[in-house]
Amino acid sequence: MTTDFTKEDIYNELKKILTEDLEIAEDKITGDANLFTDLDLDSIDAVDIAVRMQQYTDKKLSPEEFKQIRTVEDVVNAVWTLLNS
């Protein structure tokens, strides 16, 4: 799998996961939306997002990296950094 993803590609895939799989209203999903307080996700949902992003990119975020993630933008930036490291 190629790693030629843009941040917009990553954001769009994350948005798809949030809306289709986790049934989050699209209008709630913004870059600064907190996954836990604004989108009402729990730790199981967060793990599901990590797994789905791993399937999408063929790269795995470490548990330490994932613990730092709080917002939609944090997910995008973490995946982007992982792909470009």
Model description:
The chain is mainly alpha-helical and 85 residues long. The protein has one domain (7-83): ACP-like (Non-ribosomal Peptide Synthetase Peptidyl Carrier Protein, Chain A). It is 55% helix and 0% strand. The chain is built from 4 helices and no strands. It has helices at 7-21, 43-57, 63-67, 72-83. The longest helix is centred in the first third of the chain and has 15 residues, at 7-21. It is globular and about 30 Å long. The mean pLDDT is 92.
Would you spell out the secondary-structure blueprint of this structure?
Elements: H1 7-21, H2 43-57, H3 63-67, H4 72-83
Helix pairs in contact: 1-2, 1-4
